[in-house]
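pls ignore typos typing on phone
magnesium ion + seq
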Amino acid sequence: MENTTNVIEMKHIVKDFNGFKANNDINLTLRKGEILALLGENGAGKSTLMSILSGLLMPTSGEIDVRGQEVEIKNPTVAKNLGIGMVHQHFMLMESFTVLENIILGHETTKGPKLDFKNAQQQIEELSQRYNLNIDPKKKVSEITVAQQQRVEILKVLYRGADIMIFDEPTAVLTPQEITEFIQIIKELAKEGKSIILITHKLEEIKRAADRVTVIRAGKSVGTFDVSDVTNNRLAELMVGRHVNMKLDKPSAEVGKTTLKVSDLKVKNKQGILALKGLSFNLRAGEILGVAGIDGNGQDELVRALTGMQHVDSGKISINDEDMTNQKVRKITEKGVSYIPSDRQKYGLILPFSISDNLALQNYYHQPYSSHHVMHYDLIHQHADELIKKFDIRTTGSSLPVSDLSGGNQQKVIIARELDLDSDLIIAFQPTRGLDVGAIEYIHQQLLLERAKGKAILLISYELDEIMQLSDRIIVLHDGDISGEVKPEETSDEELGLLMTGIKKEGNALA
Ligand SMILES: Nc1ncnc2c1ncn2[C@@H]1O[C@H](COP(=O)(O)OP(=O)(O)OP(=O)(O)O)[C@@H](O)[C@H]1O
Ligand SMILES: [Mg+2]
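k done
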């Protein structure tokens, strides 16, 4: 029998940030044991609403009932005591601490005057086993992968006894394989009676994981639907308020001269192990070269070597026939390389700085934005306003710190800045991570426009869909080398899948 007990009821929630209503009369109910997806475009107010539920923000007005009782969630401790736990969009772990320390931080059990590490460790190991999380509590957070860090966040929430669990875009940082495992984990949790709110922009995941979906748009409720009753197209339309083209129109490529030439590239990873084992490929003007592959097969090292952030052991990188091997980051940028990083908060943005300063990061030091060491702020602001408009960055002004933007809008700031540089080579590493379907459509069109302008685009992505839709050619990275090169119109997800695991297709002259 279907269980329809509501564990959470949020009624008429309003959150006002200095006159801007990020939540403007939102209703949401969560039933016991269900997975409820929360869907809405970038800046719609999802993280804000969930921060209210987890006690990080107080609503301006509205009512929250937890298990039928009206409550006031004044701080995270109140939320914790109500059994509400949240895994945030950007993780909140201390890198230099161990997993164990991170999990018990702020929730220490004591044995007399001492911390009871042993007992904590045992409990954590039990939880890790029970939910198949595969986490070693003694490892340092800096030593584990992003997917594992996320599992630490899940463990943290479980350890604190939450039975209402909120996940803010958990899959944005995961590879397809990890996503499948994650969905299994939350389904298991729901089966055990935990109630789960899942924020994701990927409509496919909502289909796979959720029972119901609540859609919000521009801070307002649009409605709640049974997942089995709505199509992906309908969901996209409900969230953006217009028809979204999920298939791209891609004109044929007009390729020019070679822009990027990589020959016999060897690069070691952070542990000193060879991560690129003699990689060679070319990328021409007017072409999008997709780099497919499972996370950890040399993608990071390739990007870091190309952008000058990591030392190349041997081999050569030339850009427009000029040797750029082991050059400084700024020199490479100035030679005409734009870079959209996959970790926006680590590499792409200076969070406390304003949107306009972040938009000017690559060009504030030269004409026309400054001359003779004097910055021309009116020009910088004016230019920022143009980019905000062009890329539809949802904000109330360019002087706001970037940290106040929603996650997806932070991503748009980087893309706007980097595409605006008018570089010959664009390195796009997971460029649409965390973007809503409308924004993805827009960014994909922008990349195609750059291609039409004769730019060379290197697209490294773990999203096969994105690779298949945009690329003119695809190389597959496996174990630091290319396991195959294919054309999107001549390959299939299955073939790519095999190449990604290192199995080359038969009867084909693949190098
Ligand atoms: N502290 C703040 N001060 C001012 N405005 C804020 C603040 N926090 C969020 N906002 C604004 O509220 C709106 C909603 O942001 P929120 O982070 O809830 O969006 P979201 O739906 O989670 O989007 P995304 O999918 O991009 O993560 C955004 O326009 C954002 O700029
Ligand atoms: Mg968000």
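The mean pLDDT is 90. The chain has three domains: 6-240, 256-336+424-503, 348-422. more later
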